[in-house]
Amino acid sequence: MLPLRLSLDAGALVANWRTLARMSGRAPCGAAVKADGYGLGAVEVVRRLAAAGCADFFVATWAEAAKLVPLGVSLSVLHGVRAEDMAEALASPARPVLSTAAQVARWREAGGGVCDVMVDTGMNRLGVAVEEVATGLLDGLAIDTLMSHLACADDDAAMNKRQRASFAALAGRTAALRLSLANSAGIALGADYAFDLTRPGLALYGGVPRAEFAGVVRQVATPEAQILQRRRVAAGETVGYNATWLAAADTEVAILNIGYADGYCRGFSSHGRGYAGDVALPVIGRVSMDLLALDVGAAPGLAEGDWVRLDYDLLAASLVMGMSQYELLTGLGSRFERHWTP
Ligand SMILES: *Cc1c(COP(=O)(O)O)cnc(C)c1O
Q1: What DSSP character marks residue 49?
Q2: CB 199 less than 6 A from any atom of ligand 1
Q3: Burial class of residue 185 (count of CB atoms within 10 Å of its CB; 0-12, 13-18, 19+)
Q4: What is the tens place of the pLDDT at every residue in 109-165?
Q5: d(Cα 139, Cα 338) in Å, to the nearest integer?
Q6: C-alpha count within 13 angstroms, C-beta hemisphere, residue 146
Q7: Known catalytic residue at 34
């Protein structure tokens, strides 16, 4: 029993997927579960989403795919196949998402079978060029899903329309069974962006990449830490590193087993909040590597050994700290015990 847990709301995860599936219209809705399900635990995320009807899952690497293969779901490996991945890729039921001409050649020569392909439509990250597709790079290749990725879906940028048009022009140019473009934010851009399959990640896990998701997507992950010590700090004394917090009056303080090594960022110093039931407990002083101090004057019954929930509203925290919601989620460390509630 670890003194730190990540409380995970399975009902919210599934509800978020259903919301995104509804917003995807006729296109089935898949799930990006790379980076261990954005830090929540990919195996448990996939089990729950697959039970709800999600059929297509996206990971970054073959190591990530290997952990999910036993679940028997459709897996796409977004980083494609390097030479050193080939043996594993050929033996795996997961499909590589080929993204360079060299990968396409490697896969063809090995007789690799059905694959996916990423086309770059302007982000200049991974993907073969639209021109390469036009000149026949993919001809004869057995492609399940031809995909591209939007650079600015969380903004109302003109680039979204340009990328969509350039991707739509590839319809029928390859043997691909399906086209897929939209991530979470892309789903909110409208039916034109859904094509045959959507690939949300962030919004499944409670992130709000666009205003359309505010109040619609539910929070999934909440850190909870145990109190290691409760103490009274006398007026005039300070708390924590660099003595940044000075007690104006005698103050009741709880020290929690969580810190920036757990992904509870130092930026929450003086900004974060814990909760005991509905009672808000402000963070005081600096967040340490493994410890955190809260003013618990409002919760007289709270004692050593009790658990405190930490406010982890991704949108609000990202605005306060100037961090991305993706970092806030995936930064949560490995010292948590994951605790799924139905
Ligand atoms: C991570 C990723 C997604 C999911 O993106 P979100 O913004 O988290 O919804 C979809 N497609 C690709 C290619 C990705 O790398």
Answers
A1: H
A2: yes
A3: buried
A4: 999 999 999 999 999 999 999 999 999 999 999 999 999 999 999 999 999 999 999
A5: 46
A6: 29
A7: yes
Output the pTM of the full model: 0.97
Q: Give the β-pairing of 273-276 and 279-282.
A: antiparallel
Structure tokens, 114: 């059905």
At 9, list the tokens.
Answer: 């709301």
Residue at 114: amino acid letter: V
3-state helix, strand, coil in the chain (%, to 5): 30, 25, 45
326 is catalytic: no
The position carrying tokens 């090995």 is 110
Which two three-digit tokens encode residue 236? 């005039």
Q: Which atom of ligand 1 is nearest to the CA of 118?
A: 13
Find the farthest-apart pair of alpha carbons in the chain and give their distance in angstroms, rounded.
77
Alpha-carbon separation of residue 82 from 60, 133, 139 (angstroms): 13, 20, 21
Give the nearest ligand 1 atom to 199 CA. 10
Residue 308 has, within 13 A of its CA and on its CB side, a CA count of: 34
Over the range 301-330, which residues count as b (16 or more CB within 10 Å of their CB) and which as e?
ebeeeebbbbbbbbbebbeebeebbbebbb
